[in-house]
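The data are quoted verbatim here:
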Amino acid sequence: MTRPPSAAQRRVIDAADPVTGRLRGTEAQLTALVKRGLAFRHPRPPHDHFLTPAGHRIREAPAEPEAARTPVSAAPSSDGVFAARVGGEEDGTGDAGPARLREVRGAWQGLLELRRMTRPDGSAELPCGWERTHLVRAAALALEAAGHRPAGPAGDDGYRVRATPQPEAVAVYEADGTARGACAATLEAAGWQVGEHTEPRSRARYLLASPRKV
């Protein structure tokens, strides 16, 4: 769980540029947001600060009175970054209500902006460093943001993203062949290299996806 931002931090987040997520505030405010994972400092001069996916999620969520705010355990992960549904979650969070859709949309837009801010050419076509170190969550976010449905805890229809022994690849399981093909198209459009494979023992079909480098 993470504490919600203070009223002053929320004002800085809400005032961020609606397109780039660029922030303006005192050095202390910006440093505090960076420490909480809600902002990052661009490595190139003038070293401006921008919202991370978690910061975009905060901005997308409706503001609440300070006394009414409570941490939400289902949305952020332990490091404060928005956690997409990888499929098979035990908490029964498979339904995509309006609030969840806003969270996903904000996280995806924030991730695209993070790509732009961390690539020399300013392109959002290829995965960024965060995605390469959080492969399962990054692939799941791309799928959920495109409207694909994650599998429920009972293993019903829907995608499941899982880690693999390969250092830069995830496996995406989807029992329905048509849906599996749609998942592959979504990941390819999001900058991933995708191939379809068959497990030797179970003969189950799955996608092997890895972030493209060029």
In short: The beta strands are 22-23, 39-41, 49-51, 160-163, 170-173, 192-198, 205-211. Residues 63-81 have pLDDT under 50 and may be disordered. The CA atoms of residues 23 and 90 lie 37 Å apart.
